Amino acid sequence: MAQKVTITIPDDLAKRLDPVKEQFNVSRVCQEALANEVTIRELTAKGNETMEDVVKRLKAEKAQCDKEYFDSGRKDGVTDAKEMSYSDLREVVNTFSDLRATDQTAEIMYRTSVWDNWLCDQVTEIANDDGAFSYEMYLQGWVDGVLAFWREVENKL
């Protein structure tokens, strides 16, 4: 049986959420975030962690970091896509629409003009600010964001 929990969010987040909340399952997003945080808290609270416990905790923390980098990249991808030329958009679509997010996103991205035009400087800046930065997850999110934007506009062109 599911339990109902009420959360409070700041007014500015509520205003941002309102126009987009129909596009995703808000409850599921909250459940995933809570599950990750509870797992991390449970595992770090144990006094006599086994190596298995440590690995499980680190995996949970890594998954949370990866999700944050993916989400950040996705947001930046949508923002950048709104400013891209048609040619740059088509390059991303042609290069990645069949691949979606893969472990080879970074390797493929480095060979495109989009890397030089849109990503090199911002990725370098983010990486310099965060030693744990995951290029791959950020770039997968960025591509996902550009492709999501493309799906919204392609039939209107």
Give a structural overview.
The protein is mainly α and 157 residues long. It has one domain (22-156). The protein is 70% helix and 0% strand. The longest helix has 31 residues, at 51-81. The model has no long low-confidence stretch (mean pLDDT 83).
Number of domains: 1
Mean of all residue-level pLDDT scores: 83
Q: State the low-pLDDT regions, or none.
A: none
Distance between the termini: 47 Å
Portion of residues within helices: over 70%
Strand content: under 5%
Q: H/E order of the elements?
A: HHHHHHH
Structural class: mainly alpha
State the major sheet.
none
Coarse morphology: globular
Strands, count: 0
**Rounded radius of gyration (Å):** 18 Å
- Tally of helical segments: 7
Which terms summarize this structure?
70% helix, globular, mainly alpha
Structure in a nutshell:
With 157 residues, the protein is an all-alpha fold. It is built from 7 helices and no strands. It has helices at 11-17, 26-45, 51-81, 86-96, 105-109, 113-129, 135-153.
